[in-house]
Every structure is written in structure tokens, then in C-alpha cells.
Amino acid sequence: MTSFTGQRLAGLIARRTGQPSLGHDAAVVGRVLPFKVSAHVADELVDWSRAPDDPLYRLVMPHRDMLAPPDFAAVEAALRSGDRVRLRLVVDGLRERLNPHPGGQLHLNVPEGGWGLQHKYPETLLVFPRQGQTCHGYCAYCFRWPQFTGDPARRQAVDGPGVMTGHLARHPEVTDVLLTGGDPLVMRTELLDAYVAPLLDLPQVRTVRIGTKAVSFQPERFLTAPDADDLLRLFERVVASGRHLALMLHVSHPRELHPEPARRALRRLRGTGAVLRTQAPVVRHVNDDAGVWAAMWQEQVELGLVPYYMFVERDTGPRRYFGLPLARALAVHADATRRVSGLGRTARGPVMSTELGKLVLDGIAHLPEGPAFTLRALQARDPALVGTLAHARLDPAAQWWDELVPYGPRDQTLIPGKPLTLEGVVG
Ligand code: SF4
């Protein structure tokens, strides 16, 4: 299947936009952050006549502002020098500064002997199959970008299902297994089957989740790929086993689901009995608009999908370009929620995936001390913290939980009898 990366992508951008400078910028930024665009995205999703401001263009294409100006200049100069060692040093140093593994993913989530697994919450195990550590195309804001840089030290990957089943045997508390990446649906069905089939022999596993953006970026995966039918049969087997099969569709903008192939793919997937849930971060330049989210949730409900999460962009990679103040993310979520009926209000958010767990920004409270963000622990390493609340001073510029200043413990008891030990959550 055709896709564009590196110089080919830079050439495509220059040709289709008629702006060679955009192609040049892409060639520079693309040395640091990974970019890949499928033919489907280039031909069906991007509106080249509105580039570079088209949100679908922004979703997938490199832009010079993704790097700080001195960093952009350093990469550009290293490229111009033709000195490959210098270029490598500049790029490696820069990648390290872009916080490749936010949220303590490597030192906190990877279980002993389980490189390629993440076991953050007692009931849920994340599995990163080696052959699934790429995507049909890359989102420019991707928080998993280190998976795609070609550096094995930065890439989380498990060699085969044995590591996963071994861990499950030692952890009977795991009920949910999430196959993730990258995008596990880049794998041939046969390979995916090797991970899924053993789960169906384990009574403890009740839910199989698969994270994917294939409906948006490569709907042919479910239609005309040589093993598309086998994939659907595999999904049917999971459902027939009595388990919940959740396809976690990454959808950032309503236009992603407009092309007819995407609609046909959704119809086929729904026919398997899988539950299709949607999630995406709210990011500048792409979807920081309540009208966009409201339209997206409404259309998703009509298509039989369940809006699940609106995330906050993580502190990694090009957050300087895509990140939003928490106050803005909260306003987008609240306003979008007001514009849809109850069936479209199922997306929790804005949610931050932090070292401690998933924190949702519930709203703004007016305390005697002043206005405050109300945070709630949706998910936590320590299950005792789930559902607890915290208040932090309303900081209109803050973009992440660790920038917030908590109010004192006496203010953190919105739920009677459930004081939150938020010294651990905020601060
Ligand atoms: S689909 Fe997910 S993992 Fe793949 S590039 Fe987009 S955000 Fe990253």
C-alpha cells in the first residue's frame, strides 16, 4: 500500500501545495519527528487547496513551528553541511529533549521481564506487538512518536505472544488486554491472530481492546486487503467467545469518517459485533473548536460509534505546536457537550494520562480562596484513588497537571467522606 515518508513526502507537499518552502520545512522537521502519509490520506482527506491551514493537512504534515526556531535552524544547518555525523548528533540530542517517554512510561509501567508490555492499572495490560509498531500513517502530534524513529532503544515491543501470556499467568487480576502500538492492524491477520487466539483460552480475559486509526488512514484494510475477510472473521470469533471486543478508533476530525471507503469499513466492523469507541486528543490547528467536536460526536453516534475520550496533548514531541491550555481544552469539551444530546455526551474529558493515572478536568469550582480547576481521578495506579477529587488554583496558561498548584487539603473534600490525598495527584 502506497505511503509517503521523508523526501517523497517533502516532494508531495511541494508539488500539491505549489509551495516549495513547505516541502523544505517538511524535509527538515521530518529528520527529527517521524511522518508518514498514506495515499488514502493524501487523496481523500487532505484539502490541498487550503494547505497549510486545512486541519487535515495539519493533522499529518510536518510544519516548521513544530521545532523551536533555534532547533529548526540547527537541523537545517546540519543538513546543509552534508555532515552525517553532525546531523545525527543534532537529531539525537533534540529527540531526547522532546521527552520521548512521558508519564514515566518506561520506569513505572513496564513490568519485570516484560519489555513491550505496560501494566499500569491492575485490571488492564497493554501489549505492544513488535510487528504492530508502525501505523498506516502518522498523526503529527503522536505521543508514541519514538516508536517510529527506528531506534530500538526508544521502541517498546514484545517479540511474541509468549511474553504476554506468561505475564497473564502471573497476574490473574488482569481482565482487559489492549493490543496497541503503533497500530496493531498494520499486522497481517495471521500475526494478529497469534496474539488474540491465546487470549480466548484464558477465562480471566473478558475484554480485548485493539487501538487503531486504520478506518481513517487505511480503510482498505477492512475492504480489499488480501486478508480483510480473515480479520473480520477473527473479530467475530472474539465476540462469539462471549468476550467484549472493543475497537478503539482514533478519530481527530469529523472529515476522517466522510469518505465512502471509511463508511463501508465501519459497516463491516459493526457487523462483527465489535463495539467501536472513539478517542483523540484536543489539539491546536486540528480540532480546538467545540463545533468540530460536537459535529464529530453527533456523526459518530449516527454511525453507531461510542465517543469515549477527549485527551489532553501529552508533554512530548511537538507539544509546543499542538498543545492547548487546560482551560481552553475544558471550554472546548464543555461547549461541545452542550451542543449534543445525551447519546453524544459519552466522551470523558479533557483527560490527562499522567504518572499516577487518568485525571479528568471536571470543571471550575469557585472556592472561598478563588477559582479552581476540579480534577477527578478516573483511573489510578492505586485503585483507592479512583473517583477522588482535587482542586488546583485556576492557572489559565497551565497545559499539564504538574504545572498546577493545589489548594490545601481542607479544600479537597468535595465528596463527603472521601478526602483526596492529592499531594500525590497534584503538586
Ligand atoms: S494512530 Fe496513534 S500511534 Fe499511530 S500515529 Fe496516530 S496517534 Fe500515533
UniProtKB/TrEMBL annotation:
Annotated InterPro entries: Aldolase_TIM (IPR013785), Lys_aminomutase/Glu_NH3_mut (IPR003739), rSAM (IPR007197), rSAM_sf (IPR058240)
SUPFAM superfamilies: Radical SAM enzymes
Keyword vocabulary terms for this entry: 4Fe-4S, Iron, Iron-sulfur, Metal-binding, Pyridoxal phosphate, S-adenosyl-L-methionine
Cofactor: pyridoxal 5'-phosphate
Protein origin, superkingdom: Bacteria
Name recorded for this polypeptide: KamA family radical SAM protein
Species: Streptomyces wedmorensis
Taxonomic lineage of the native organism: Bacteria, Bacillati, Actinomycetota, Actinomycetes, Kitasatosporales
